[in-house]
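Thread: Modeling a multi-component assembly for a lab meeting

Hi all, long-time lurker, first post. My supervisor asked me to bring a structural picture of a complex we are working on to next week's group meeting, and I have zero experience with this. I have the sequence lines for every component (511 residues in total). Could someone generate the structure of the whole assembly? Inputs are pasted exactly as I received them:
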Amino acid sequence: MSDTPALRSTPLSAWHRARGAKMVEYAGYTMPVQYEGTLAEHAACRERVGLFDITHMGELEVTGPGAEAWLDSLVTNKVAGIPTGKVVYTAMCHEDGGVLDDMLVYRLGEAVWLVVCNAANHAKIAAWLQARVPAVGVVLEDQTDRTALIAVQGPDSRELVGRLARLAGRGTDIDALDFYTAFTLGGPGLDRGRWIVSRTGYTGEHGYELYLPNADALPVWEELMARGADLGAVPVGLAARDTLRFEVCYCLYGHELAEDITPLEAGIGWAVKLKKGEFTGRAALQAQKDAGVPRRLVCLEITDRGIARQGQAVRQAGREVGFVTSGTFSPTLRKPLAMALVAADAADGPLAVDVRGRDLACRTVPFPFLPARTKGDPRAERPLSA
Amino acid sequence: MVPDDRKYTQEHEWVQVEGELGTVGVTDFAAGELGDIVFVELPEIGSEFSQGDTIGTIESVKAVADLYLPVSGEIVEINEALVESPELLNKDPLDDGWLFKVRISDPSELDQLLDAGAYNKLIGG
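Re: Modeling a multi-component assembly
Sure thing. I ran the full set together rather than chain by chain. Output:
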C-alpha cells in the first residue's frame, strides 16, 4: 500500500472541475492543466486576457529590522535598498552555485518582505530559510496556506483588473504600477483582508498577479470572469502557462533551472549581482565566471520534422554536447522550438536533437523566441526571432 | 462517440474495413485525452508492418503518443492533410482525421479487435 498524502486543493478547485477542466497533480496540489484546449487558452492570453489560478505558489513573509540584510545575503540579486512596492526576480543558490529555486522578492513595507517561490520547491525553500533565520531581528512566517494567487495576463488585463469592485477608485494606482512593482490594500503586513496587486507575470504579456486571502479568491475569480466576458476573458490552465512562458524564454525550475545548474549557465546572470556583497553561492559563481561559464542556454528551432522534448540529447557532429531543457510546438510561432543547455564551446555551431533515436537538425535562433510585451504598449507588434 | 461501423484496439485506434483495405484512425476518446494535436508522423507508403508494430507518432502540445498498426499489411495511402492540419485529428478524428490505409494481409487478425460495445466499455462509456 502506498502512503500518498492527500492532494491539496485551492479555493478555486471546485470551480475548475465544474468548468470541465482536466485536473492534474502538480507539486502536491490538484490543479487545472487545461479547460477548453491549450492552444485556444494560449491565444486568448496573447490576444485578449487570461485568468490563472496559481494559488499553489509558496508565499513566505519575512519581517523585522533584520529582514532586509538577511534576505540580501541569501539571494543572488540585490534586494537591499529597494523601495517599498518594488519586486525583484532572483535566484536562491546553494553554496556551490546551483539553483535552489527562482523567486520573486517583494518589499511591501520598511520591514515587511514577501518571498514567492515555486510550489515544487516550497517545502525546500521554507526549510532552507527556517534553518537560517537569525535568533533576533527576523520573523519568518509561511503564508502559503492562507493566500490565494490569481494571475490576470494579456493585453486586456489592465482593463479587466480595473473593473474589480475592490479596486474602484484605484485606477491611478494601477496605472502607476510599472513592471515589477506592486501595491497593497490593507497591510502592508498580513492582515486578514490584505491584497497585493502586482504588475508581474509568467506569460510575457502585460499582466497582474493578485495575492488574496483565500476567502476572496472565488468571488474575485467569478467577478473577473463576469466582468471580463465582453473582453473574451478565459481561464487558462497550467499547460498553456508553460507554453506561454516557453515562447518568451522564461526559465522554469526543473527545466532550465536545477540544483546542478547555475544561474549564469541558465542565462539569468542579470539576476546575479556578484559585487553587491556576500551571499550564499557568491564565491562559487564568481569562480565560475572567472573560469568561464561551461554551459550556455540556447534557443533552437527544429528544422527537421519533429518536436524536441525535455531531456533529449543535443549533439554536434556526433558528440553529445548537452540536453533539451524545454521543447514543444510553439502555438504563436507555429513551429517546434526548444531551449537546450549545451557546452559553451558548442553553442555557436550546428546542433541536432536526438528525438527517440533520430537526430533532428536544428537552427540556433536569437533569444527569446518571442519578445515580451510586459512593458510599453501591450499590443505592440512583435518582430519574430524564430 | 463510438460508431459501430468499425473495429477498435486497446490502444484507442479504429480500423474501418472496405474489401482488403483498412482505414485507420484514432478514437474520439484518444484525441480528447491527448489534447490539441500539433504534429503527426505517419509511415511511408509502400512499407509493410506486422500487427502491433509502432509505425508513427502523434504529438500534442504536452504529450507524445505512439501509433500502432492494428492489422498486419502494407501502407497504401496516408492522410496528407494531417501534415499541414494536424488539428483535423481533434476536429474530426473519426472521418477527416483518418491516418492511413493499410492493405490487410491477414484478415483473421480483425477478429482480435474490439467491437464498438467492447471499446465503449474500455473507455468507461
